[in-house]
Design brief:
- With 361 residues, the chain is an alpha/beta fold.
- The chain has 2 domains: 183 residues, Rossmann fold (3-Layer(aba) Sandwich), CATH 3.40.50; 142 residues, Glycogen Phosphorylase B (Rossmann fold).
- The chain starts with a strand and ends with a helix.
- The relative contact order is 0.13.
- The structure holds uridine-diphosphate-N-acetylglucosamine and uridine-5'-diphosphate.
- The site of uridine-diphosphate-N-acetylglucosamine has 18 residues, from α1 and α5.
Amino acid sequence: MKIVTVVGARPQFIKAAAMSRVLRPRHEEILVHTGQHYDPQMSDVFFEELHIPRPDYDLGISGGTHAQMTARMLTAVEEVLRKEAPDALLVYGDTNSTLAAALAAVKLHIPVLHVEAGNRLGSLVNPEEVNRVLTDHIAAMLFACVPSAMESLRLENLAGHAWLAGDPMLDAFHYYRGLGGDRPPETLPGIDGAPVRTPERFYYLTCHREENTRDDAPLTEVLLAMESLPCPTLYPVHPRNRAAAERLRRSLGLANVRLLSPLGYLESVALVAGAERIVTDSGGVQREAFFAGVPCVTVFDYAVWPETMVGHCNVLARPDRLDILNKLSVTPAWPVQASPFGDGHACETIVGLLDSDFRRG
Ligand code: UD1
Ligand code: UDP
């Protein structure tokens, strides 16, 4: 089969890295980078350290409103699809790149394969939810990471072309941790470029969601909570809120929170696994915390990954200093049964399903 894969954002590079290793020996893959994430530390670093093949097309589209970004991607991806005439389009997750590519493909009658289908938080106020729901409803094959996502697809009458395949993020976590992501480096890149020594004991923070960065209030609460903890917090800052994080560091006089540049994947998973506890609003980081057996507090209103919340391994908190500190003091009971995220071979399962069910039509 000839498959066009469209990626654009950091977590998609990681999933595509795991998938391309399995897909490419059996199928022809054309890789398209929309350009949604473009800073070297948000893009190039993943291609280099995860050995992702260079994109065949780099569309260079980023920024603007949701509509502007999605519209420009829609037009540009359509052009690529017309030229390449693939058998299918492969997309991951819930970014604007995902939705734009899926929409371009379905209008050209190119079957859409959606990996990480079915997650729902139940409110279209969240931009990622809009992207997920719409992509799921126009896709030809849906690959869910977890049972709760399969159940959502069933409730939306999509189960007839959905499969529980496991989570490619778990595949990546197992595979790449063995290639250097097992131990944090001695120093990390500070936000101003100067090296920051990795403390022996630390908390790991990521916070970048639109809901938490629209104004300074939520991030202020998160930073004040982390500042009061008994050991330092390492916080790689997404470019979306870099200016706000630096401003708040100065105005709040932070000394215990270390602002870092965005990290490579190997550094990030090493910090996840080495942390005392994690505070995040990232879908990927809360799963990695669960994979690594590190307690996590998710600063968000909704449980997008309910499987991580069994036994309080991952607990929701409001963007409120006291609530975050309370939730950080919860002692989780780790589940002993098999991982709800699969066996670390989701990509093999998905490619196997393409070979059997896609060909059958
Ligand atoms: C996007 C996804 C989100 C995902 C996240 C992963 C959507 C709607 N959201 O959110 O699901 O969790 O990626 O990190 O697609 N920017 C830079 N340099 C970069 C990348 C972004 O300066 O390399 C700036 C952009 O110009 C923009 C802002 O950061 O102003 C936000 O970027 P955008 O891609 O729109 O959304 P994310 O918050 O990254
Ligand atoms: N990550 C990274 N560098 C960082 C922060 C996160 O490589 O500085 C990794 C993280 O370990 C996880 C993925 O990026 O594998 C999650 O991406 P992100 O939080 O941007 O998006 P989300 O998962 O929320 O969609």
